[in-house]
């Protein structure tokens, strides 16, 4: 009896949630451009409060806005 | 020569040459914030004493409270209850003594001993705390004093780094360097080692090499290379 229960438990545990049509990698499109801006126009570098629509992303050669102090302004060209 | 005589000789040699403690007393609790009450300071005893090539367990530990440190309260420890010495209302020293039966046969223990205190309002300072480590050698107390003040070498006292008091523990803090204080650029890491970034105008500092790389590649931003002097306003992100 114990063996039967053990086998049943193993079979149950082996069943995943592989539902059809659902991808585990249903995240953002990785081929999409990293920046919402269509070109690399010069853009003022400022703290996050001044860029409320920007998303947090790994830094790409520039200090991320969360590391820029309040009131900071500098002109930079953002890497596309 | 009897073993008793040999041991007596070793003890006498120890008295003359003092003991050798195997490692400096550390402060594993790390830097503290200026003027902050209820700050816990932990002393780490990584090793006991060495006399004549023999290693001994620590039997007593004594802390001399530096001037300006107030509201001092010791915690119980592996050494048992603390004994407090006062001058008026001020605690001047605290000693912990282990039960002699609890002394280990060798230098096998690591001990942490903690006090709670209000930190002096001296940001950007390094405060030495003189301590004494005592071992029992053949029933005789042998003392190693960690009392050499910076920049001396040898039995240097553990040094408490006092950072500016932060209002925002995990965000931006605006500090003004106090009158009479200069923070050498080389010491920025001492006082801002746990900060994500430090700004003075468009100059920035970080102990994180990746952030430094970004500082160097961000247009309009340069590395902070000068000392901080009285009146300088800085932004610090923790």
Overall description:
With 80 residues, chain A is of the alpha+beta class. Chain A has one helix and two strands, in the order H-E-E. In chain A, strands 1-2 form a two-stranded antiparallel sheet. The N and C termini of chain A lie far apart (65 Å). Chain B has 238 residues and is mainly beta. Chains A and B meet through strand 2 of A and helix 3 of B.
**Can you list the strand order of the major beta sheet of chain A?**
1-2
One letter per element, helices H and strands E, the order of chain A comes to HEE
Number of helices of chain A: 1
Biggest sheet layout of chain A: 2 strands, antiparallel
The major beta sheet of chain B can be summarized as: 5 strands, antiparallel
Give average pLDDT of chain B, whole number. Answer: 91
Low-confidence stretches of chain B: 1-17
Element-by-element helix/strand order of chain B: HEEEEEEEEEEEEEEEHEEHEE
Low-confidence stretches of chain A: 4-40
Strand content of chain B: 35-45%
Features:
heterodimer; A: 80 residues; alpha+beta; two-stranded antiparallel sheet; B: 238 residues; mainly beta; five-stranded antiparallel beta sheet; five-stranded mixed beta sheet; 12% helix; disordered N terminus
What's this, in brief?
The complex is a heterodimer of chains A (80) and B (238). Chain A is an alpha+beta fold. Chain A has one helix and two strands.
What's the helix and strand layout?
The complex is a heterodimer of chains A (80) and B (238).
Chain A: H1 2-14, E1 42-45, E2 74-77
Antiparallel strand pairs in A: 1-2
Chain B: H1 3-17, E1 20-21, E2 32-33, E3 39-45, E4 49-51, E5 54-56, E6 58-64, E7 70-74, E8 82-87, E9 90-97, E10 111-118, E11 125-128, E12 131-137, E13 140-146, E14 159-163, E15 172-176, H2 188-191, E16 197-200, E17 203-205, H3 209-217, E18 222-223, E19 233-237
């Amino acid at each position: 009896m114990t063996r039967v229960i053990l086998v049943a438990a193993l079979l149950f545990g082996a069943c995943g949630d592989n539902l059809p049509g659902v991808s585990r990698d249903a995240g953002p499109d990785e081929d999409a451009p990293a920046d919402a801006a269509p070109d690399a126009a010069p853009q003022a570098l400022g703290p996050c409060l001044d860029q409320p629509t920007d998303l947090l992303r790994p830094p790409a050669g520039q200090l991320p806005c969360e590391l820029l102090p309040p009131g900071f302004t500098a002109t930079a060209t953002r890497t596309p | 020569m009897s073993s008793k005589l040999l041991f007596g000789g070793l003890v006498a040699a120890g008295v003359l040459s003092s003991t050798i403690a195997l490692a400096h007393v550390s402060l594993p609790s790390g830097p503290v914030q200026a003027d902050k009450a209820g700050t816990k300071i932990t002393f780490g005893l990584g090793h006991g004493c060495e006399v004549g090539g023999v290693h001994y367990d620590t039997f007593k530990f004594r802390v001399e409270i530096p001037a300006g440190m107030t509201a001092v309260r010791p915690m119980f420890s592996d050494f048992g209850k603390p004994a407090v010495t006062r001058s008026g209302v001020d605690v001047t020293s605290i000693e912990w003594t282990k039960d002699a039966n609890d002394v280990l046969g060798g230098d096998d223990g690591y001990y942490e001993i903690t006090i709670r205190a209000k930190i002096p309002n001296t940001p950007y300072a390094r405060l030495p705390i003189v301590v004494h480590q005592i071992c029992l050698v053949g029933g005789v107390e042998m003392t190693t004093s960690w009392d050499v003040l910076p920049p001396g070498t040898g039995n240097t006292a553990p040094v408490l780094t006092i950072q500016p008091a932060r209002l925002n523990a995990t965000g931006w803090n605006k500090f003004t360097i106090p009158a009479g204080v200069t923070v050498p650029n080389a010491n920025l890491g001492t006082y801002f080692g746990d900060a994500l970034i430090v700004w003075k105008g468009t100059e920035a500092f970080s102990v994180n090499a990746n952030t430094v790389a970004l500082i160097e590649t961000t247009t309009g931003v340069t590395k902070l290379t000068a000392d901080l002097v009285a009146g300088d306003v800085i932004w610090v992100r923790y």
